[in-house]
């Protein structure tokens, strides 16, 4: 329980500092409402049916995007990792596309797929592909060549080697990429909702809160909910990874 206690103490200290800065007038409360006001609004939003629909819309878009990224990146990563010639031939294209910020592609994606949920799903998928892809390629580089040579000497086909040798070895690395992509995908979904003005979603709620009267308390409350979602997703995936790949953690510790 010690890490939990330390985290709670740190969180409490941050909230007290936030409350003090706002109450003492160091910043205008219109710009930075006190923590107590923002938390009250946050709990109120969690009981608001309209806001919960926005949360569901964002989570659903995130889940679809992450699933598509996994389906695209895992086979592509294993293929590029197993075929050095193909990997070299596509390196220039991959290195050109990878650094492009997803939000910079918003106008293009809206023109191609429209401004509905498809746009945020497409952009989140694009952003989430790269960590999974690179972890899959890296995992293939770490495979003991003796395992591949043994499988080939037994007459095992390339597809069977990928499925029975490469994929089990790559699974922990790929899962790490999925954890990274999960956070990136959620960031992109909310960002696109905010920038492109989606019909629903947490980003759309924050955009509406900033317009008109400029309810900064609602803006921060929506931001806290988005951050809480990100924390729960990462914590859940981390716990799942420890359960699924306990053998990998143990073997790594023994190797060290």
Question: What does this entry look like structurally?
Answer:
This protein has about 260 residues and is mostly helical. The chain has a single domain, classed as MetI-like fold (Orthogonal Bundle), CATH 1.10.3720. About 80% of the residues lie in helices and about 0% in strands. It is built from eleven helices and no strands.
Draw up the topology in text:
Blueprint: H1 2-23, H2 35-45, H3 49-82, H4 84-97, H5 106-113, H6 117-141, H7 145-153, H8 158-196, H9 202-210, H10 216-244, H11 246-255
Helix pairs in contact: 2-10, 3-4, 3-6, 3-8, 3-9, 5-6, 6-8, 7-8, 8-9, 8-10, 9-10
What are the low-pLDDT stretches, counting only 5+ consecutive residues below 50? 250-256
Number of domains: 1
CATH architecture, by name, is Orthogonal Bundle
H and E string: HHHHHHHHHHH
Q: How far apart lie the N and C ends?
A: 27 Å
- CATH homologous superfamily (4th level) name: MetI-like
Q: Please summarize the sheet with the most strands.
A: none
């Amino acid at each position: 329980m010690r890490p939990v206690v330390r985290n709670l103490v740190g969180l409490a200290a941050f909230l007290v500092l936030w409350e003090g800065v706002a109450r003492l007038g160091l910043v205008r409360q219109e710009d930075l409402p006190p923590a107590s006001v923002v938390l009250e609004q946050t709990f109120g939003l969690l009981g608001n049916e309209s806001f919960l629909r926005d949360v569901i819309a964002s989570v659903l878009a995130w889940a679809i995007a992450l699933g598509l990224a996994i389906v695209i990146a895992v086979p592509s990563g294993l293929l590029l990792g197993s075929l050095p010639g193909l990997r070299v031939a596509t390196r220039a294209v991959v290195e050109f596309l990878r650094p492009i910020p997803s939000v910079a592609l918003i106008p293009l994606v809206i023109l191609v797929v429209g401004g509905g949920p498809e746009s945020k799903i497409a952009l989140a998928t694009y952003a989430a592909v790269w960590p999974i892809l690179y972890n899959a390629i890296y995992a293939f580089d770490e495979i003991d060549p003796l395992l591949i040579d043994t499988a080939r000497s037994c007459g095992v086909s390339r597809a069977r080697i990928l499925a029975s040798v490469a994929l089990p070895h790559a699974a922990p690395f790929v899962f790490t990429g999925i954890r990274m992509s999960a956070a990136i995908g959620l960031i992109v979904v909310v960002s696109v909702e905010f920038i492109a003005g989606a019909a629903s979603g947490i980003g759309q709620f924050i955009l509406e809160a900033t317009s008109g009267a400029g309810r900064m308390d609602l803006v921060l409350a929506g931001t806290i909910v988005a951050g809480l979602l990100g924390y729960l997703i990462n914590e859940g995936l981390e716990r799942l990874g420890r359960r699924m790949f306990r053998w990998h953690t143990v073997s790594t510790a023994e190797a060290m």
